[in-house]
Design brief:
The chain contains nine helices and 15 strands. It has 326 residues and is α/β, with parallel strands linked by helices. The chain folds into two domains: 129 residues, Nucleoside Triphosphate Pyrophosphohydrolase, CATH 3.90.79; 178 residues, Aldolase class I (TIM Barrel, Alpha-Beta Barrel). It has an eight-stranded parallel barrel with strand order 8-9-10-11-12-13-14-15. Strands 1, 2, 3, 4, 5, 6 and 7 form a seven-stranded mixed sheet that branches. The structure holds 8-OXO-guanosine-5'-triphosphate (8GT).
């Protein structure tokens, strides 16, 4: 007997969509959705609905072959990000996976135009709205380097210079110096941005959002949770990376609401910097990441060797101090 209860009409099924971020020589494969379909005319990553009985990886390999003629195997795929999005007329779960070093020539087998584009060339407004975090995930590195707590700016700058010339030199650096008042912090950050730039790295300032405007060389701002919780909307312009420190599920939801471009989540494992705090553990970390519509860096108790594990749990990568700052 059909369910005629009024609430039945309100249950909208979410469409599970397998999405492929296919990379070759640093470029990503992008197609244009045909006119007349959902979100038609916009750009997209190859992919499509997961059919009954298929795993998401199988669905993705099938869709990629149908749409582009490329062969991608489930073993090549690594989870990138899951995004739940309500378009009003349709709810989707974009289950995005990344494949690096894809071989072969791609062709638009369904008549769609396709091209390999540099991640920096992707503009949010050319894609369906749900794709924003995928584009962020594609541009962000897999390591986020956080400086130790800098108290003496002169010594801190020297240490930064040294750390950046080390083997584990990371591309994105968060300048953490909570003990400094605002004017000395800004002076330090102006100089640190130059040091990073010379080393081919980019600097994210740490603290309250207003610091970003005072450090023209910075590419973003990272909000500690006690700052993030004071805001109800994105406190910095779109051109800035916005990062938020999160420790649990409600904080993740808040960071998403702010339009964070990435979050750190932890501590994942026990860490000497927070004695007595147990850590989320990999299983809980993975659950939280699976429901986060924002790239997540695992933080706390992690070494460089944990990066593959964090990524296998769907994280963007790892963040931390000890792996690059000694
Ligand atoms: N393939 C793909 N779909 C996306 C992206 N972003 C996004 O919001 N979607 C949405 O995900 C849904 C999946 O769409 P699809 O039409 O490609 O799936 P499909 O090939 O199985 O479709 P069909 O069998 O109905 O023709 C659409 O509602 C689409 O708007 C994206 O980057 N790639």
């Amino acid at each position: 007997m059909p369910n005629t209860a009024p609430e039945a009409a309100l249950i909208v099924k979410t469409v599970h969509v397998a999405v492929g971020v296919l990379l070759r020589a640093g470029r990503v494969l992008i197609a244009r959705r045909p006119e007349g379909v959902h979100q038609g005319g916009l750009l997209e990553f190859p992919g499509g609905k997961v059919e009954p009985g298929e795993t998401v990886q199988q669905a993705l390999c099938r869709e990629v072959a149908e749409e582009t003629g490329l062969t991608v195997t489930p073993e090549q795929l690594q989870p990138l990000i899951n995004i739940r999005h309500d378009y009003g007329d349709k709810r989707v779960l974009l289950d995005a996976w990344i494949a690096r070093d894809v071989q072969g020539e791609a062709e638009g087998r369904e008549g769609q135009s396709i091209q390999w584009l540099a991640p920096e060339a992707l503009r949010d407004e050319d894609f369906p709205a749900a794709n924003r975090p995928i584009i962020r995930a594609l541009r962000l590195p897999d390591q986020l380097a956080i400086t130790g707590d800098i108290r003496d700016p002169e010594a801190g700058l020297q240490k930064l210079h040294l750390a950046l010339s080390g083997a584990a030199s990371p591309p994105l650096v968060v300048l953490r110096a909570p003990a400094l008042e605002s004017p000395p912090y800004v002076a330090l950050a102006l100089e640190a941005a130059r040091v990073c730039d010379r080393a081919g790295a980019a600097l994210v300032v740490h603290g309250e959002p207003g610091v970003f405007d005072r450090v023209p060389g910075a590419c973003g701002v990272h909000l500690p949770w006690h700052q993030a919780e004071r805001y109800t909307e994105r406190p910095v312009p779109d051109r800035a990376w916005l990062g938020v420190s999160c420790h649990n599920e409600p904080q993740l939801r808040h960071a998403e609401k702010l339009g964070a471009d990435y979050v750190t989540l932890g501590n994942v494992l026990p860490t000497p910097s927070h004695p007595g705090r147990e850590g989320l553990g990999w299983a809980r970390f993975g659950e939280l990441v699976a429901h986060a519509a924002v790239p997540v860096y695992g933080l706390g108790g992690l070494a460089l060797a944990h990066r593959p594990k964090a990524q296998a749990e769907g994280a963007q990568g790892i963040a931390g101090i000890s792996f690059w700052w000694s």
